[in-house]
User: Which sequence fits this backbone?
């Protein structure tokens, strides 16, 4: 589903960036430049979409579509991102707030080879919690896990995922 795919893609992109940054501590020891990440995610529960004002037929169609998507099992996606010095120096979660949300991030632990943190966003009657755990296997390889919990409108959804990233080179081309 586009809603799930877009939200998950944005979260995983933020996860890759956050894994390599913190103003107060040593960032992951990874190379700057073009990275390719392979993510595998699986969700459970229903997204916090308020369907109470929808006609019964529309609500039934949306809920059936969501159940069908979950029944398909894990979804794998490959994407590229440009990791720059600027992204290493700022908090990328500051950009993960979505319309009307307020987010706070705290680092649980960080070293040159490991990053663990949590972000909580609230607003519009919803709550989003993102927990990330990343390891730098080398300066050119990272792997990690992400857990997202979305709640609101009397519903809750969890997304669990893994990500494996590899450095492709120093030139990001047109990707920024």
Assistant:
């Amino acid at each position: 589903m586009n809603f799930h795919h877009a939200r998950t893609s944005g979260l995983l992109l933020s996860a890759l960036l956050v894994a390599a940054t913190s103003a107060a501590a040593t960032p992951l020891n990874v190379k700057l430049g073009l990275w390719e990440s392979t993510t595998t995610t699986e969700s459970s529960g229903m997204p916090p979409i308020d369907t109470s004002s929808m006609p019964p037929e529309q609500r039934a169609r949306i809920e059936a579509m969501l159940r069908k998507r979950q029944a398909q099992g894990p979804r794998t996606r490959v994407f590229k991102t440009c990791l720059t010095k600027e992204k290493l120096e700022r908090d990328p979660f500051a950009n993960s707030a979505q319309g009307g949300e307020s987010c706070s991030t705290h680092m649980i632990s960080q070293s040159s080879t490991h990053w663990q943190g949590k972000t909580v966003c609230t607003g519009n009657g919803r709550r989003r919690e993102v927990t990330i755990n990343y390891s730098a296997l080398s300066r050119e390889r990272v792997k990690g896990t992400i857990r997202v919990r979305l709640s609101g409108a009397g519903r809750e959804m969890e997304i669990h995922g893994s990500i494996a990233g590899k450095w492709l080179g120093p030139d990001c081309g047109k990707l920024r």
Observations:
- The CA atoms of residues 95 and 131 lie 16 Å apart.
- The first helix runs from residue 2 to 19.
- The longest strand covers residues 155-169.
- The chain has three helices and seven strands.
